[in-house]
Amino acid sequence: MLITFAIIFICFVVLVFSVAKLYYPEEKDYDSFEKEMDRQHEYDGIFQYTEKGFYIKQNNNSEFIKWDEIISIYFFSVPTPFSDRKQSGLEIITGNKSYEFDHNVTPGIVKLEDQLSLNLPTWDIDSPMVRINNFGLEKTKLFEKKSF
User: Following DSSP, what letter does each residue of 3-19 receive, concatenated?
Assistant: First the structure.
C-alpha cells in the first residue's frame, strides 16, 4: 500500500512539474538574449546595403533608395484593433514615395535602423512622440533632411 502511494505521489509530482514547465518555460539568460540581438543586428532580411543607399527586395522586385533622397523618417505606433498591443515600425519618406516597415513582419528591420542612423547625420532619438489622430496613431520624428 505504501509503495503504491509513493508511486502515485511521484507520478503526481512529475505531472505537476511538467505542466508548470509547459506554462512557464525557462526565461532566456543574458547570453542567449545577447546572441539573439547580435544576430538581429547582422541580419539583412529584405534589405541590401551599399555606400549610396539600400535595396528593398520584395516579391521578386528590387527597389533602390539613396541615402540623400530620404526626406524624413518616423517611428510609428498604432493600437491593433483586437489586442491591447501596439503595431510599430518605421516610415521612410523620400521625394517620390513613402515606405512603411512593421517591426513584427519586416525581416532585417533592426539592421535597417542601424544603417539609417549610421548614414544619416542628424538622426534624433530624443524627439517627442506626437499623437496624430483619434485612432491612437503616434509618431516620433527620427530624421528630417535639413534644407539650406
Answer: HHHHHHHHHHHHHHHHH
Position 78 scores a pLDDT of 83
Q: Which residues sit opposite 98 in a β-bridge?
A: 93
What is the three-class DSSP state of 139?
strand
Q: HSE, CB side, 13 Å, CA atoms: give it for residue 141.
A: 9
pTM higher than 0.90: no
Can you give the pLDDT at residue 66? 93
Number of H helices, E strands in the chain: 3, 8
Distance, in Å, from the CA atom of 57 to the CA atom of 40, rounded to the nearest integer, reads 18
Helix segments in 24-137, DSSP class H:
30-42, 109-119
